[in-house]
Amino acid sequence: MSLVAKIFTCKRCGYCCQGETTVSLDADDQKRMILSLKSSEKNVREKYWRVTGNIVQMKTVAGHCIFYDNGCTVHEGRPWRCGQWPLHPSILSDENNFKTIADSCPGIKKEIGYQEFCRILSVLMEKDKVVC
Ligand code: SF4
Ligand code: SF4
Questions:
Q1: Cys-Cys link to 22, which of 58, 97, 107, 116 (CB 3.0-4.6 A)?
Q2: What residue segments make up the domains of the chain, in order of their start?
Q3: Ligand 1: does its nearest atom lie under 6 Å from the Cβ of 119?
């Protein structure tokens, strides 16, 4: 079992891809997504993004991210915040963050306990292997 799998296995429930808004895309996210979709920036912008001033998010359809279809359909080109979820560094500084995230993500193996979870997450972060 990989180190990540000791604390998290995605259940593909889709909860983190639901809502009327999405995470925002920084400049690197935008470039990566355009490359991943093998399309022009103009096309990606028109078809997939909701642009409000300087803020670029993904469009939503029927209450979920436009790329969600029983899983992420733009996995390689997803924003870095999507890749980071749910192993957020804020878990390490506050057990309440752990509880909040564990309550919204059934993939978190909360049964191993907060201390052990943090120990493993810290090792992963040192190795820079927290992309899920
Ligand atoms: S909420 Fe957690 S288990 Fe569900 S899809 Fe998102 S990361 Fe996976
Ligand atoms: S880009 Fe993928 S992982 Fe991120 S919210 Fe959309 S469907 Fe979910």
A1: 58
A2: 3-126
A3: no
Using the Cα atoms of residue 121, residue 124, residue 126 and residue 131 in order, give the sign of their dihedral: negative
Decide if 59 contacts 48 (C-beta within 8 A).
Answer: yes
In angstroms, what is the span from residue 58 Cα to ligand 2's centroid?
8
Q: Do 101 and 3 touch, CB atoms closer than 8 A?
A: no
Does any ligand 1 atom lie closer than 6 A to the CB of residue 86? yes
Tens of each residue's pLDDT in the chain, 132 residues: 889 999 999 998 999 999 999 999 999 999 999 999 999 999 999 999 999 999 999 999 999 999 999 999 999 999 999 999 999 999 999 999 999 999 999 999 999 999 999 999 999 998 865 555
Query: For position 58, what pLDDT does the model report?
Result: 98
Which numbered atom of ligand 2 lies nearest the CA of 71? Answer: 7
CA-to-CA separations, 131 to 4, 80, 128, in angstroms, rounded: 9, 8, 8
